Fold these 4 entries.
Entry 1:
Amino acid sequence: MVSNSGLKSASYSKTIENVSEEDNEIQLFPNPFTVEVNLRIGNPELVRSIEVLDMLGRQIEIITQGAVQKEQSIGASLKSGMYIIKINGVDKVQLYRLVKK
């Protein structure tokens, strides 16, 4: 479109598919934990990988896209301490702090 002043303008729109809250939901419990932590993912297809990191950011464990399940347990091999669970999604990254007693 060209206005009377000679300036050109344009508009752009995009429809974004709605993602239900349930599909996007991540649950980690119990926290703190002693043996394993349970991980529930609303829609595992939206998760590319799950990383367990120490507090220095070093990768301790990784679960890649094909192995991500709706419900799984992680952390059995971890020593006592604080950890970060990094969930790399299709459109976002989520971080959770965990404590193993």
Note: The helical segments are 21-24.
Entry 2:
Amino acid sequence: MTRVSLNQPEVSHGTGGVLSIILSHFWFKCLGTMAFTSVFFMAYLFLLKHPFFPVTVIPATGLDGLIGIAPLALVLYLSLWLYLSLPVMLTGTRPGVVDYGLWVGAMCLTALTIFLFWPTAVPPALGDWAQQPGMAFLKDIDAAGNACPSLHVATAVFACFWINRQLGPYGGRRGLRALNIAWCVGIVYSTMATKQHMALDVVGGIALASAFALARHHATRMRAEPAVSGVVEPSPHPGGRVKFGPDRECILRP
């Protein structure tokens, strides 16, 4: 017995199949992402510039001392915005896109609530940014507040979990999974190498993302249970049957 998800259209495992998923509902994905990002940043920047309570400075740890400032890490840091587009672009249905948006939105709302009641920041004067124009630009546009938990880390780690699941049909290509994990690790590292976050912020971000990834996994399993009592329809395989449940999962039977 094989369980197959119908949340995405069946495609070949080649480049053409991936491209067809990326292009499906393309404008819905783009406009939805833009709307989500705009609303999020309005709330994020408001809390950053108008803390309601005294700001707590997150202390440095030994790990922070070991990881020095690396200007080239700025590239990895900024690559988050490309990385975060992958879960959306690799989703082939509108309900799937909305599902991802709801989970990410809930995670961001949780972090914003923490920032509201417990505003945090990294220690000041961690480097001479005037000698590094790129880093100085980052510090100007992204003040190192709303530090713990790191949403930069949380969104990257949550996306990593999501992309890893999306790569299921391509399981034979382990290089894709390795690349996904390596990119995520690079982004996490960059938050400390640019001194935008301390190690404690990173731990908080990983914990937040892991909690929501586990919650989503549990919710998906719970929704899949009613599939066994769905309606029997013809199978695409000769001599088989397909039983559909309300969650659009199916069980293929010979």
Note: Residues 28 and 166 are 19 Å apart (CA to CA).
Entry 3:
Amino acid sequence: MCGNSSRPSSGGRIAVMFPSASTTNHMNLNMNINPYTLFFYEGDRTTAIFRIEDPLTRAAFHDCESIDLRIERHGDLTSALTAPPLHQFRLRPSYSRKQGMTAIESEMAFELPEKLDLGVSEKGIVGRTVTVVAEGRMMLRMGMGMGMGVVGYD
């Protein structure tokens, strides 16, 4: 691990997600997307947990109808997203909201439909770019990039 941290490792994987330039340029909706974290944990299937501390960013996620979570084949944040991703999942925050989640909570958890390789390998997700695109009411039915990051060890 690089540097010193008082935070213990959770044993999962983490991607710190930052809004892309296109997100901030597209934001004529009077809202800003701030950095947030995306965690991946092993189980029978992989669980993805969005930890969103900023209230405005959290509200944007809770208002969307779906989230497109892509794990790309590369780890280069500067390359264009033209190739098919290694993994792609359509997540439904509105379904999570019906299950008791409120807009006040800072985490949204989704069980992915398959178990991901959380290591470094041909199919592993460590070192790969993650992109998040939201669709829904605030996004005017067109996808809006909500962030990009690279998966690493937590």
Note: The chain has three helices and nine strands.
Entry 4:
Amino acid sequence: MTSPLLLWAILLAAALGPQVPAPEDPHFARGIEYQEAGRLDEAIAEYELSLKLRPRFPVLANLGSVYARLGRYEEAIARYEQALKLAPGQAAVTLNLGLAYYKTGDFQKSAGLFEQVLTSDPENLQARTLLADCHFQLDDFKKVIEQLEGFEEKHPDDLSIAYLLGTAYLRDKQTEKGQRLVDRILSKGDSAEAHLMLGVAFAEAREFKPAIAEFEKAIQLNPNLPQVHASLGRILLRSGDRDRALTEFEAELKISPNDFNANFYTGFLLRRNDQDEEALPYLLKAMQLRPGDSAVAFQVSLVRMRRGELDETRRMLEDIVKREPAFIDAHVTLARLYYRKRMKTDGDREKAIAEKLRLEQQEQQPGSGKSEIKEDAASGKKQEAAGPPKP
């Protein structure tokens, strides 16, 4: 079964079929010939020479496709965008541009482009599934459901939709609906996807042992299934097995280098192990994937602070508490920073805010221990000292 989480592996075909070259443009003709023969570097050279004669939509579209096939996505994006300036609204090129952004990990940008395709072609199943997958990558499971709920009934044999929608149901705690789709997948035979979904169901119910067992079964059946190692890593982290969790997050990154959770938790765990220099690239990648995520910014600020970059740390922490006023640990860390900089008045203010928030938290959750993670999983507003959002 092709998982929608593997859709990024789709070959980015030419936005249009081979175009009939203008008589005065032999470079375009040779570019098409080389592209069809798989001689991609030579195709690029000819298309670039063609553009020097005159920028034209079909040349730019084909050139973007060749760059994408070579994994040179930034160059593909530039050419696709140039093509769309010459011929706005071309759905095929817009879809390919969205796929190129998807491959770079810019899921918000790619989602907007897939939405454009659906505006002109609401029945485009590839664009709809990719849009749903973008929302999935951003942990916005309700939007996944909105995109696929009606289409799942129209395409009952499409197990990719069943997998993505069913997992979103389970993440959204709509267990009965999710289980129905798990059963549909299992009716077609045992699969890694089904065990991944069952693991998610157990994890959402906080039944850690059976969740771990299901994720392990999924890995046995398909160790390269996207999300499976990250899902196991998150449940292991919640169970307290940090060393094994780190191993699973690192395994996920070999499959899906743009996975937000794998980057974030790898960076977090390395930082907790006092491996700041090793942690920082993963945290910065997570920040690139979700620029507004306060939990990621907080982890980066902790690394910056330990490196003595106090002015940058101050800027980051002040921005975090402005955006997330209930983020206790950001207030605590900012207070410490102010004291280090001999800004006692500011330090006292942040300390008082943190204490007030802690008291409010204890009133809402009586009997909770200080070391227990207490946070909104989406925003990371409340969490253990120097800790991550809840896995």
Note: The first helix runs from residue 26 to 36.
